[in-house]
Amino acid sequence: MTDTAASARLRSIDHLFARDWIQLSERVHVAVGYGVSTFSFVVGDTGVVAVDSGSVPALSTEAIAELRNHTDLPIVGLVYTHGHPDHTGGAPAFLDENPDIEIWGNVRFGDEARRFARNGASIAQVRGKRQAGFLLPPEKRINNGIAPAIYPKAGALAGGPGGGPDRRTFPTETFDANGVVELGGVTLEVTSNPGETQDQIMTWFAQDRVVFAGDNMYRSWPNLYAIRGTQYRDVRDWCESVDRMRELKAEHLVLGHTTPFSGAAEVDEAIGTYSRAMWHVYNATIEGMNAGKTPDELAHEVTLPRDLADNPMLGEYYGNVSWSVRAIFTGVLGWFDGNPASMNPLHPADRSGRIAELAGGPDVLFERAQAAMEGGEAQWAAELCDMVIALDHRTAEAKNLKADAIDELAYNLVTATGRNYLHTSAQELREAAATP
Do residues 242 and 277 make contact, with C-beta atoms less than 8 angstroms apart? Predict the structure, then answer.
């Protein structure tokens, strides 16, 4: 694997999701690195309530075994922070422990998966595998930005609520705006807190002043847009949800991935930093939109201030600022960038043909793509290759060259999801080029 500064930076955060068992407070235990997501156990007088279930049943079973080193009380409840399968896929392990466990979720639970299914958007699953790097050899994966690079067994991350047929693991109890979970001597306040998903909730354990953020926070720039494809994650809602967490003045903050925060000052600083950064990108994008700028312009121009860009909480390990800017523009205004020439653009093959004519023919485009690659301009090389491929000219050569270009882009990108997508796409291009 090519060693680059971006690769080294991504490797440097492995400790944030290495396996660890953290007793966060007198009653709260947090399991980090037992699968893809972070999940927790709140110990009451007569029972235990879990917040999220982890991603893979076998690994969640190992976490439950570690819990038994701290308490023999039965697990009587499970609260889902949202419907993504990396937070619900471990639920069968909890059902094995207690078939009558009470499972709580927001009334909108699983909305995202149901929307994909309703619209027949199966391409999201294909793109999801690319984003996750599941089709890559281990040497092409470092981590996923907020979790270890795990290769789940078939269906392990697809089952459970919102992702598969195992209805045993669906919520048995739901709430709308607010609810209270009272089980085993544990009282948890649950509140709808939309952000990464519409079914996202905030869970508050007032007794020990612990807030569970779900996937509205982790130690990375947030994934305001998932390149696998997703409905608009309303960024303004997400900003307001983060601010609601800050209002609690918590002593401890449990994130949906990576290690938690402890200490009132540290928690307030972490949430405050996240809030300020998200609001900055949102407001700067809206300001640019109102000035008539296009998504392509804003994606290059909207950046974090230096004091935020250098903050370890905001590294682009999982989410990416430029993708976020594009998502905000499209989510607020839709696909049209406002430029009248963009209203009905030429077909890519037609445009490529006209550009090839200007350049002196498709061979010239290909030669320029080769030169760009040799000159360290991988992005331009990939774009030129797209034109050659659109013209069905020297197609196998162009696909192989584009594969080299996007591999190079991947090696120099910190964002794990983007790296995985690029490397997987390069792999697919080489396979296509080798097919007669």
Answer: no
